[in-house]
Amino acid sequence: MPVEEYQMETTMEKRDHSVSVGEAHLYGMLTPLPFIALLVALFVSVWGWEHLVRESFVALSNGAASIMALLVGVVAHELLHGLAWGYFGRKPLCALKFGFQWKTLTPYAHCKEPLPLDAYRLGSAAPGVVLGFVPAIISVFTGDAGSLLFGLLFTLAAGGDFLVLWLLRAVPAGSLVEDHPTRAGCFVLESKPVALGV
């Protein structure tokens, strides 16, 4: 009776680590609250509540400047995602896609090629750090409530990104991931051995 021989090959399987854009907005608003509370507490401990209220009113009284800062921040948020993924993942600009999802009124950045997990995490965290934490921390030293408000707003805006980082907390280092084209998050790529009869 002949002995059947097998040759092993590998195939890629995808594990979904994503949430809908709506879920990212909803649950993502809760994720950054501890950071926001800490940043406000730091500012108030140095400058006091009265200074915060007075200077916030001054900053917000210039409506045109506030709207412009908001629009620039929204665009910069997505650019930071894409450029960080490109830089840390060593991807060309043609691998990045930027656009606007009209269904959810959400701008987006998308990397069309798989990325190392560390590069994906850095790209996901970049807007929250650069537009959120950094201006808010600078405001603690300068007393500029406008910078604090900008930082708090974009820390809140990065809530969905922080949620995605939480979803990836147990993924092994060195994994390869693929940015989800329509949802917040990614696929984790896993190679699986497949036996082929010879």
Provide a quick synopsis of the model.
The chain is α+β, with helices and mostly antiparallel strands. It has one domain.
Largest sheet: 4 strands, antiparallel
Supply the number of helical segments: 7
Order of helices and strands: EHHHHEEEHHHEE
Order of strands across the main sheet: 1-6-5-4
Pairing-aware structural class of the strands and helices? alpha+beta
Terminal CA distance: 15 Å
Mean pLDDT: 90
Tell me the number of structural domains: 1
Helicity, in percent? 55-70%
The gross shape turns out to be elongated
Classify the beta-strand content into a percent band. 15-25%
Cα-atom radius of gyration: 21 Å
Count of extended strands: 6
The poorly predicted ranges are none
Outline the secondary-structure elements.
Layout: E1 6-19, H1 21-28, H2 33-47, H3 49-61, H4 63-88, E2 96-101, E3 106-111, E4 115-116, H5 117-142, H6 145-157, H7 159-167, E5 176-179, E6 184-197
Antiparallel strand pairs: 1-6, 2-3, 4-5, 5-6
Would you mind describing this structure in some detail?
With 198 residues, the chain is of the alpha+beta class. It has one domain (6-197). Helix content is 56%, strand content 23%. It is built from 7 helices and 6 strands. It has a 4-stranded antiparallel beta sheet. The chain has a two-stranded antiparallel sheet with strand order 2-3. Strand 5 and strand 6 (184-197) form a beta hairpin. Helix 2 (33-47) packs across helix 3 and helix 2 (33-47) packs parallel to helix 5. The longest helix has 26 residues, at 63-88. It is elongated. It starts with 5 loop residues before the first strand and ends with a strand. The relative contact order is 0.24. The model has no long low-confidence stretch (mean pLDDT 90).
